From TrEMBL, chain A:
It holds the Pfam family ABC_tran. One of its GO terms (molecular function) is ATP hydrolysis activity. This is ABC transporter ATP-binding protein. It comes from Ancylobacter mangrovi. The keyword Kinase does not apply.
From TrEMBL, chain B:
The chain crosses the membrane at residues 62-86, 98-121, 133-156, 177-200, 234-256. The lineage of its organism: Bacteria, Pseudomonadati, Pseudomonadota, Alphaproteobacteria, Hyphomicrobiales. InterPro entries: Bact_Polyamine_Transport, MetI-like, MetI-like_sf. Residues 63-255 form the ABC transmembrane type-1 domain. It comes from the Bacteria. PROSITE patterns: ABC_TM1. This is ABC transporter permease. Pfam families: BPD_transp_1.
């Protein structure tokens, strides 16, 4: 039995369905991300779980109880907001004590719990400060602490790291996941940042146009994208368009200046317009050998420039069909800019989708 | 030091503006403490005129009534305008401009007409006699529109998502209002209260028609004119001005010391120290 269940949840604003028939089942110890571009409905979905919005249709169940029509303060949930939304007229201590006071706990127990949260979030010494006397990172920790201190049934996080700089964000990713594991409550994390979703989640729901395109483990989302949108949105990929042709048990896709071969897929047949994605890190490079015939899944290209990303490098290549990006670890065998190379990939690394009419 | 004509001109204009605003008030203030109140230059100080005002029982009763009208009309209009503003900002949606227009329309009705129409309506349909109560109600109509504008400018800057946060963390809507909303927006309500107090305290046109025989400071002053400009009027004007300036000074000091910041500004919360 799932701990949190969304059953056909929909939300209509005017004539627009911001959330459209979403079904999800989330377990008690899960870290789930709702990943999608802005305006995809992921925040609305989160606010429906919080009770800040009422769904037009469908039901929300938390811990077996139908909470669809319960107001937010009776749901036992907590939330961390993108803008932190700390109470500006209250000190850090008072902000952290707020959920506990609402639970009508004894003074002694409130002090104990606030102290516990101050400890795990390294906020000791800041109790008497007001939110506007804190740095962005400190405010973020207080916001997270306020979410954890009441031991909610579920913690909802709405892009909590979007206002932090990159370094701090990576630290907080590790920390958030650590607290989730320690507390054993489900976290539902809304983000448009695939790195955040991939680094923390057990499962990721990719949201687009109010619908959940796929809800699967993070490795499935990344390695086996179910739709063209997911292939495009998660990871960094090279995109090819072409027409499919059947060749025994394989498909041959003839695009402009490139021939892609991959295993046959159900639903894609002779003459279909298709779109193929190959992730940047799956594109391999070797120096071009003069006279070598161009085969399937290879492209003759020239290195235009190299972007260093620290642990790996991105090679921006130009070829007859435009631009291609290959990324590879910096293992010492670096290729020089301007070199003529052959880019190639395995047939198994091609993600192939039928091109929906005008959809992509 | 070199004289810069543009700056001198600017300063001169500012000085003229202030003189234009305050010269009559200063004249009356000087006169009310002077032995020769008709032409107090140079002034010779005395408290005789003030003494005459305070020994006049008509003015004492009038002062009491004016304070009652001021406090009650201010409390009523601030409360209603506060509720109306919350409704406008949170629940009115696309029709908000229409509701706003209807709320502030009384601003554009002449006060005399408002007074007369309230008198007629009260007499004809409600059977209300002219007394303090009906004067308070009629003043509240007028003050409501002013209060709404003052409160709306403050509440417009309030981040309503703070209410979301409070509710998610277990506060009922009522609790949310008293724990989070009110502590952050009270300066706007307080400002509206002071302004509407001063307005209804000083109001003649509306109160005049609805008071019956009850005197207020403005109506007593108006009535006293029949017997010429008596020295008590000088003293009265000075006292009223002192009260008004005192209230404005309180607001000014509160703003200066940061006790009153007029509304919650989210951008301040985000900035690191």
């Amino acid at each position: 039995m799932a701990y949190i269940t969304l059953d056909g949840v929909s939300k209509q604003y005017g004539s627009v369905w911001a959330v459209d028939r979403v079904d999800m089942a989330i377990d008690k110890h899960e870290f789930v991300s709702l990943l999608g571009p802005s305006g995809s409905g992921k925040t609305t979905l989160l606010r429906i779980i919080a009770g800040l919005e009422t769904p037009t249709q469908g039901r929300v169940l938390i811990d077996g109880e139908d909470v669809t029509h319960l107001p937010p303060h009776r749901r036992g949930v907590a939330m961390v907001f993108q803008e932190f939304l700390l109470f500006p007229h209250r000190t850090v201590y008072e902000n952290l004590a707020f959920p506990l006071r609402m639970l009508k706990l004894q003074k002694g127990e409130i002090a104990e719990r606030v102290d516990w949260v101050l400890g795990i979030l390294a906020l000791r010494g800041l109790e008497k400060r007001y939110p506007n006397q804190l740095s962005g990172g400190q405010q973020q920790r207080v916001a997270l602490g306020r979410g954890l201190v009441g031991r909610p049934k579920v913690l909802l996080l709405d892009e909590p790291l979007a206002n932090l700089d990159r370094e701090l964000r990576q630290e907080m990713e590790v920390e958030i996941r650590r607290h989730q594991t320690a507390l054993g409550i489900p976290f539902i994390y809304v983000t448009h940042n695939q790195e955040e979703a991939l680094s923390m989640s057990d499962r990721i729901a990719v949201v687009r146009g109010g619908r959940v395109e796929d809800f699967a483990s993070r490795t499935d989302i990344y390695d086996r994208p179910k739709t063209a949108f997911i292939a495009q949105f998660v990871g960094r990929s090279n995109r090819f368009e072409g027409v499919a042709a059947q060749a025994s048990d394989r498909l041959a896709i003839r695009g402009e200046g490139v021939l892609i071969e991959t295993a046959a897929r159900p639903g894609i047949g002779e003459g279909d317009n298709v779109v193929a994605y190959v992730k940047n890190e799956k594109v391999r490079l070797k120096l071009a050998e003069p006279g070598a015939a161009a085969g399937a899944n290879t492209i003759a290209a020239r290195i235009r420039h190299v972007i260093l990303r620290g642990a790996y490098a991105e090679y921006v290549l130009s070829w007859s069909g435009g631009e291609l990006i290959a990324s590879r670890p910096r293992d010492g065998a670096e290729l020089p800019g301007g070199a003529e190379v052959t880019a190639y990939w395995d047939a198994a690394d091609v993600d192939l989708f039928a091109q929906a009419g005008g959809d992509q | 030091m070199r004289i810069r004509p543009a700056k001198t001109l600017l300063l001169g204009t500012v000085a003229l503006c202030y003189l234009f605003l305050y010269l009559p008030i200063i004249h009356i203030a000087l006169a009310s403490f002077a032995r020769n109140y008709t032409f107090p230059y140079p002034p010779k100080w005395t408290l005789t005129i003030m003494g005459r005002l305070f020994s006049n029982s008509l003015y004492q009763a009038a002062l009491g009534n004016s304070i009652i009208i001021g406090l009650c009309a201010a409390a009523l209009s601030t409360l209603l305008a506060g509720l109306a503003t919350i409704g406008l900002l949170r629940h009115a949606g696309r029709r908000a401009p229409l509701y706003l227009a209807l709320f502030v329309a009384p601003l554009f009705v002449s006060e005399v007409l408002l007074g007369i129409s309230s008198l007629i309506f009260n007499g004809l349909f409600l059977g209300l006699p002219g007394n303090l109560g009906s004067a308070i109600l009629a003043n509240a109509v007028h003050c409501f529109s002013y209060a709404l504008l003052i409160i709306a400018t403050q509440l417009y800057r309030y981040d309503w998502r703070l209410d979301d946060a409070a509710m998610v963390f277990g506060a009922s809507p009522m609790r949310t209002f008293f724990e989070v909303t009110l502590p952050l927006v009270w300066p706007g309500l307080f400002g509206a209260f002071i302004v509407t107090f001063i307005m209804s305290f000083n109001n003649l046109e509306i109160s005049f028609y609805l008071l019956g025989a009850t005197p207020t400071l403005p109506s007593a002053a108006w009535g006293a004119l029949r017997y010429g400009v008596k020295p008590e009027l000088y003293a009265l004007a000075t006292c009223v001005n002192l009260v008004v300036f005192f209230l404005l000074a309180v607001m000014f000091v509160l703003m200066l010391t940061g006790t009153v910041t007029f509304g919650h500004r989210p951008e301040r919360e985000r900035s690191a120290v």
